[in-house]
Amino acid sequence: MPVTIQPVAPTKSELRKYVKFQIDLYEDNPYFVPPLIFDEVNTLLPDVNPAFDFCEAQSFMAYRAGRPAGRITAIINHQLNEKTGRREARFGFVDFVDDPKVSEALFAAAEDWARAHGATEIIGPMGFSDMDHEGMLIEGFDEMGTMATIYNYPYYQTHVERLGYEKDTDWVEFRIKVPDKVPDKMTRIAKIVMQKYGLKILKYTSTKKIKAEYGEALFKLINEAYASLYGYSALSDRQINYYVDMYLSLVRLDYISVVVDNDGKLIGIGISIPSLSEALRKAKGKLFPFGWWHLLRAIRGKNEVVDLLLIAVKPEYQNLGINSLFFYDLLNLYIRDGVKWAESNLELEENLHVQSQWEYFERRQHRRRRAFRKKL
Fold first, then answer.
1. 3 state SS of 299
2. In 10, 131, 212, 271, which residue has its Cα 20 to 30 A from 204's Cα atom?
3. Angle formed by the axes of helices 184-197 and 323-336, to 10°?
4. β 121-124/88-96 pair status
5. Distance from C-alpha of 339 to C-alpha of 274, rounded to nearest angstrom
């Protein structure tokens, strides 16, 4: 059957169709966690997402015999290219049926657009920044996904490799068993580190207060801590303001650990959230009429799984045992609330220092995902 490619206009109505294609493709898959449609649409809208201040993008839909069969977004992050000196494009938000003609046509459209905009190579799956989903799943297809990660069918890897894409980097993920008590060694280390460096852990009960005191500083710290990581694009002031409002209104405040020095300067942040995977599956991409209720119950009610969204520590304090403070603080809360498992989310496979922090716990590496690169 013939395959046609159509550019997607950056309007809410057209982007809703684009986002809905993914949800329909995985409708019967028990491991796929759908995004909230409005949130995904806003990410792709130039007049909403501040990443478009320094990025340009074009989304495409594939049709086979007149029916939707695939989607892809080509992105150029000019800010990151200026930093690295590369002429690099990204592909992201990619999904397609198991038909080589569809994937070939989709990627050809993205690559042609990238060349026309001066790119000499393309990588992905990546979004506009690290706040977007990244990495194609290549192991762990029978594991429930998380709100922060991509789920895709196993055939995706075969398709992109057939098109000449090669491994650029891998991320691994761990499922960690929450112990019955905080390990004594971890408690000792945390207390020693706090005393030695004059640090303390702050807890908040007011979203307004944490936003006012550390909201902006939190994301600036992420910029510092993640600056050298693969493909990291520093968040602009407009992005920081955008994400402060988005994320700090969603998270559960007692599952945030804020570490400061004696002068109140932010040294580290640990953010976790009760798993929203089951709630998002029930919501099926929609907040209304009942999606909000499922999400609220997941955040405030009993939940046996927690997602470890991020840990960020100022570069000069890294490798000094600061991470022990987050576990010392948060593990007690998980145990109190009956949490059984924690999801690590993405860690670069070569980042053995980060992975070593799980040595205290029973765990298994249960997912792997990959970024691919191709010369244009």
1. helix
2. 131
3. 130
4. parallel
5. 9
What are the phi and psi torsion angles at 8 (to 5°)?
-100, 125
The 8 Å CB, 24+ separation contacts for 159-167 are 159/96, 159/100, 159/103, 160/103, 160/107, 160/136, 160/372, 161/372, 162/100, 163/103, 163/104, 163/107, 163/374, 164/374, 165/372, 165/373, 165/374, 166/372, 166/373, 166/374, 167/370, 167/371, 167/372, 167/373
What single DSSP character describes residue 55?
E
* CA-closest candidate to residue 265, choices 217, 225, 220, 223: 217
| CA-wise closest residue to 152 among 40, 29, 21, 64 | 29
3 pairs with which residues across the strands? 64
- Round the CA-based radius of gyration of the chain to a whole number and report it: 21
pLDDT digits 0-9 by tens, 22-45: 999 999 999 999 999 999 999 999
Place of tokens 């929203």: 276
Q: Residue 80 is which amino acid? A: L
Alpha-helical (H) ranges within the chain are 12-25, 37-44, 78-84, 100-116, 155-162, 184-197, 207-210, 216-226, 237-248, 277-283, 291-300, 323-336, 352-355
Q: What is the mean pLDDT of each run of 10 residues along the chain (376 residues)?
A: 95 98 96 96 97 98 96 97 96 98 98 98 96 96 95 98 98 96 92 97 94 94 94 94 85 94 96 95 91 92 94 94 94 96 94 85 96 98
- Whether the upstream peptide bond of residue 289 has omega within 30° of 0, thus cis, is yes
pLDDT for 62-116, tens place per residue? 999 999 999 999 999 999 999 999 999 999 999 999 999 999 999 999 999 999 9
Q: Which residue has the tokens 């007049």?
A: 47
